[in-house]
Amino acid sequence: MKNLLILKYLLVSCVIVFNVALADVPTEQVKEVEHLLAYVKNSGCIINRNGSDHPAEKGVSHIESKYDYFRDDIKSTEDFIEYSATKSTMSGDYYTVTCPGENTIRTQDWLLAELKSFRSKVK
Predict the structure, then answer these.
(1) Cα separation of 14 and 25, whole Å?
(2) What are phi and psi of 46, to 5 degrees?
(3) Over 90: is that where the pLDDT of 25 sits?
(4) Is 48 within a domain?
(5) Residue 117: inside a domain, yes or no?
(6) At what angle do helices 56-70 and 77-84 cross, to 10 degrees?
(7) Domain that includes residue 109, residue range
(8) pLDDT at residue number 28
């Protein structure tokens, strides 16, 4: 009986660990997500969500919260952008970013461009 309980515990533990390992971006893309979060935080840009402007530091906090919430659905850096930094899950409105001296664009386009630039430098 005791061995059966131990076996059951180990099986449940393995399932939990396996599910956690599958959730989130692949290991080789973790640096990309970290880079994008730092990029937003240090950008000095204004993030607009649902008609309200937020400094980059607050914008990145919201992105991190959504990242944590959707972590099980995120399988790539592009998924990270899609789920965490593209649009409001409540209103469906796209987030935008306004950087000093630049036109306002969707955060999704801004981050995808930065991801492309980052990947070209890493190769």
Answers:
(1) 20
(2) -110, 125
(3) no
(4) yes
(5) yes
(6) 110
(7) 25-122
(8) 86
